[in-house]
Automatic annotation (TrEMBL):
The lineage of its organism: Eukaryota, Viridiplantae, Streptophyta, Embryophyta, Tracheophyta. It comes from the Eukaryota. Residues 162-219 form the Pyridine nucleotide-disulphide oxidoreductase N-terminal domain. Residues 357-570 form the FAD-dependent protein C-terminal domain. This is Uncharacterized protein LOC108835023 isoform X2. Residues 146-158 have a biased composition (Gly residues).
Length: 629
């Protein structure tokens, strides 16, 4: 009886509901259309779709599926059916709900308690309430080393733990948010500038070729993902409570709420910049002390425990006059994977670092119209530079190739080659943090309306590849990256000019003749022998995979496709080992390595999730809550 009663409570989640493009209002509509009601009615076997009340349904996810194996392209929905509302508005649906049975991947019953989740601020406050903290949800004036005044969830009368969060990328921001909400005394230290000034520094780079080594596409408020495509896809379950908490937090700070529903959510730089400003204002209102243009140069260690950090004004490259020591009870290290000086400092402090596999390669750029027509055929005309009914086309390809180099292939399994960080309607940007090194990535604006499509084409590399260049030790991967970034800078001839080659010429090992296909990269491109950039086995893997990608995406190998060198910073080449439970470094007490730079995340959302969990772990270790979430 309980089982039967259950069916008439909570929510039924209906997945894989297909609506043909012609019947759907289009990618920007997240409402319940008549065509969608028909798809729903079919699943619950309700005879008259138009009698189903729209109010009883909400779209959980909407994706576009234009795979060639389908008879026609369609939008694919996941929809929640709220039983209570449905039965109130259409009591005749009772028997149909009663007969509904769960079907793997298609129909799922969610009891009431499984359906609620809020943004991170409400989650933390709920934890504090459970923990008996009457002041949960209030931001009180900070009291340092005095009466906690309800700020610290652990109770009044105790001083607040002083926590430094180093790095203002997604992982650092989310760690700072959680810790501030739990009532810790948080200082966020960021070597780069706030987004407003950072925007000006990036403008100077793109227009006048002036690189500020501390405020650029990698460093500054929001971290590496700010001037980016802002893709919010992650391999952590899309509908998982943690990912939803992060996405809802972004919505709270100004992201459009379609990111909660879109199958491939993305923001674009124009949406990220105001969002980060709101995030900052919220943190400041919660008492977080934010120090921009402040670089952590060293850790203060006493009795094998971190007790603070040495910082300097990041505009002062000699650290001569501005260096000062700041005391903290714990340091959350969220520095990303471009902070090469910070890794060196950690090594000098004997913090355990281990090399990690990552991937290197080139960035390929096609005209977006070509990718639209490869992916959509006749439907390509519906894209209309991001304003049409269907999304600007993207792609994702992965292949495994054998190493031709005997020394490597004997022991190794196949090497994977894949597209990475694809930016539809975007542009290629410079992500160097040093003028002698050249590396690139991609970004876009929310409309994705540029005439180009770019993506990294990369192959995995590991210690065996570093060995071939006689690179050993924990930072071998970083030296490996540097080697090819320097070679690319030389091939480009300096001044951040990027070496390029047509895909067709790369396959035939010949220099591309001018005129070259147009490139979105604004600092200039120069024809070069990119087939000589990497060791032969890497070039060969890239060539093999290009030929395989052509089978999947006919037209991908094109005279109009231009390869740009070099893509090296795909994920961290180093891991900073930490405890799975406490998030504390295995080699230095009081140090909490998090996010992409620590080797525990890759991408905006996973870095944010890692920062969030580290915030909970640090809060727990300082007794700010008891661990009940
Ligand atoms: P980061 O974002 O790298 O942040 C680290 C911060 O620490 C930086 O702001 C840095 O200035 C600061 N810092 C470093 N050292 C110090 C120090 N010693 N003292 C003080 N501060 C320091 N991911 C996606 O999921 N989707 C995308 O579309 C996407 N596009 C991208 C486009 C570009 C151009 C780039 C470069 C990256 C892109 N990524 C994307 C990757 C994504 O940005 C990262 O995975 C993510 O930002 C990692 O977050 P993080 O907080 O771990 O580190």
């Amino acid at each position: 009886a309980a089982k039967v009663k259950n069916k008439l409570e909570g929510v039924w989640r209906l997945s894989k509901l297909g609506v043909p493009v012609g019947d759907d209002p289009g990618k920007d509509s997240l409402g319940i259309s008549q065509a969608l009601l028909q798809a729903i009615a079919k699943v619950i076997e309700f005879p008259v779709a138009s009698m189903l009340p729209e109010e009883a349904f909400s779209v959980v996810r909407k994706s576009f599926d234009a795979r060639k194996i389908l008879k026609e392209a369609k939008f694919v929905y996941t929809v929640d059916l709220d039983v209570k509302t449905l039965l109130e508005l259409e009591p005749r649906a009772h028997d149909f709900i009663f007969r509904l049975e769960p079907k793997l991947g298609l129909v799922e019953h969610l009891p009431p308690e499984k359906t609620v989740s809020g943004d991170l601020i409400s989650v933390v406050n709920e934890c504090r309430r459970i923990n008996g903290d009457a002041a949960a949800g209030e931001h009180e004036p900070k009291v340092i080393n005095g009466n906690g005044g309800g700020g610290g969830g652990g109770g009044g009368g105790r001083s607040k733990p002083r926590i430094a969060v180093v790095g203002g990328g997604p992982s650092g921001l989310f760690a700072a948010l959680v810790l501030a909400e739990f009532g810790a005394d948080v200082t966020l230290i960021e070597r780069g500038q706030a987004v407003e000034e950072r925007g000006r520094d990036i403008g100077a780079l793109v227009v006048r070729k002036i690189l500020d080594m501390e405020s650029n596409f990698c460093f500054g408020e929001g971290g590496a993902g700010t001037w980016s495509d802002g893709k919010l896809v992650t391999r952590i379950g899309k509908n998982s409570a943690t990912v939803l908490a992060v996405l809802k937090t972004l919505v709270r700070f100004g992201a459009p709420d379609n990111i909660l529903v879109n199958g491939k959510p993305h923001l674009g730089t124009d949406k990220l910049v105001p969002l980060l400003r709101n995030f900052r204002h919220y943190l400041q209102s919660a008492g977080v002390n934010i120090k921009f243009r402040t670089r952590v140069d060293d850790l203060l260690v006493e009795d094998s425990r971190v007790v603070g950090v040495r910082v300097s004004d990041s505009a002062d490259h000699l650290q001569s006059s501005t260096s000062k020591d700041l005391k903290f009870d714990a340091v959350v290290l969220a520095v990303g994977h471009s902070a090469r000086d910070t890794y060196e400092m950690l090594l000098s402090r004997n913090v355990e670092l281990t090399p990690k596999d990552f991937a290197v390669g080139l960035r390929v750029e096609h005209p977006q119209e070509l990718i639209n027509s490869i992916q959509y055929s006749d439907l390509a005309s519906e894209v209309r530079k991001g304003r049409g009914k269907v999304p600007v086309a993207d792609y994702k390809v992965v292949q495994y190739v054998n190493d031709k180099d005997e020394e490597l292939s004997q022991s190794s399994s196949k090497r994977s080659c894949y597209s990475f960080c694809m930016c539809p309607g975007g542009q290629v940007v410079l992500t160097s943090t040093n003028p002698n090194e050249l590396c690139i990535n991609g970004m876009s604006f929310s409309r994705r309306s540029s005439k180009w499509a770019n993506a990294a084409l990369v192959v995995t590399v590991s210690a065996k590849d570093f060995d071939l260049l006689n690179l050993t030790g924990p930072l071998a991967g970083i030296e490996f990256q540097r080697e090819f970034e320097r070679r690319a800078a030389i091939m480009g001839g300096g001044n951040f000019t990027v070496p390029v080659q047509r895909v067709t010429d790369f396959l035939e090992s010949k220099l591309s003749e001018t005129p070259l296909p147009s490139s979105s990269y604004r600092l200039g491109v120069k024809s070069a022998n990119l087939h000589e950039l990497f060791p032969a086995h890497i070039t060969d893997s890239l060539r093999q995979s290009l030929s395989m990608f052509e089978k999947e995406l006919p037209g991908f190998i094109s005279e109009e496709a231009l390869l740009h060198g070099v893509e090296t910073r795909t994920s961290s080449p180093v891991r900073i080992p930490r405890s799975n439970e406490t998030y504390e470094s295995t080699s230095l007490e009081g140090l909490y390595p998090v996010g992409e730079g620590a080797g525990y995340a890759g991408g905006i959302v996973s870095a944010a999730v890692d920062g969030m969990f580290s915030g909970f772990a640090v809060a727990k270790s300082f007794d700010l809550f008891d661990g009940t979430v």
